[in-house]
Amino acid sequence: MEERKYVDEYVIKKVQQGNAELFEQIVKKYQNRIYGMGMMFFRNPDDASDYVQEVFIKTFNNIQSYRGQSKFYYWLVRVAYNHGINMVKGMKRADTLVDTLVTDWDLSPEESQLKKDIHSALQRAVEDLPEKYRICIDLYFFYGCPYHEITAMTGFPVNTVKSHVFRAKQLLRDALKGSVAEEYHEM
Amino acid sequence: MKCEKAMEQYLKADADEYLPLALRLHLRFCRKCRVETAAMRSALDMLRNEDIYTVPDDCSGNIMAVVRNSGNSYGRRMPLFNWISGEVIIIASIFLVQFSDDRNWLTGYFGSNLEIPLYIVLGILVTVYSAMFAVSRLGEFKKLVVRWQNR
Predict the structure, then answer these.
(1) pTM
(2) N or C, which terminus of chain A has less Cβ within 10 Å?
(3) Distance CA B36, CA A28 (A)
(4) What is the ipTM for the molecules in this complex?
(5) Rounded (5°) CA angle A62-A65-A69
(6) Closest to A23 (Cβ–Cβ): which among B36, B43, B67?
């Protein structure tokens, strides 16, 4: 039977109404993303796998408190981020996903070069940042969170988030100048 | 609008932010900026849509097993706001019924003996409604009692 795909908010509404089985769609869709966040916090596959399970179970247990005021995905990222922060309290800093960007991708030479350019631009952006602000880059560039969501999650002032992301975007722009991406869009 | 200013404005914009008209017009007519923003957009889309890590083992089976055993089958629950609104309406009706013409007519017809049965019916209504509310929120009441006992 063909599995129908629904938007997250619709699925969550159904889960809230008692159809818990639909929650599996959410887990399948986002487990890699949450695992990435787990790796960012723990740098260890076993801990990251445990973290994924804990985050989704926590999300399910608190599903009634999701009111649909923002996208469900942002809410999930927020739950995951808060859970990760609580778990690593007192431990060493969270890692950044920028460091793992190129090594995991197996692509054509052009795509690979483009991603190397993007990687080096983001790495420069991250290197210049104090450790605690590096999460802003991850949340914006890899998790697609808007400024106000990052502010709500991290507690950093919105202008601080904006300025760090802006600088990273400028570096990204410089890296993309004359790249394969620009050549492609010039055609 | 100059290209540098346009690009600065573009870079400052949030992920799904609606771009100002002047900027959109500039991008429409300036090929250089259009190419640059398109490259930026595809780079950002690529980063956002890529799963940098893949879970070694699909966790969904384990998670769903816990979900199924958790007993959190919520059923079709009415939101708290609706419950409270209903309660307020019932209480307001009880208060306002004494000013109603129909009540005056009923009193005239049945005499003062109407008061007791009327308020018994309204009392039953409030009790049934409160009981339904309590049953629908049993889990939360249980948690409250446990928290109160653990104080």
Answers:
(1) 0.68
(2) N
(3) 35
(4) 0.74
(5) 130
(6) B67
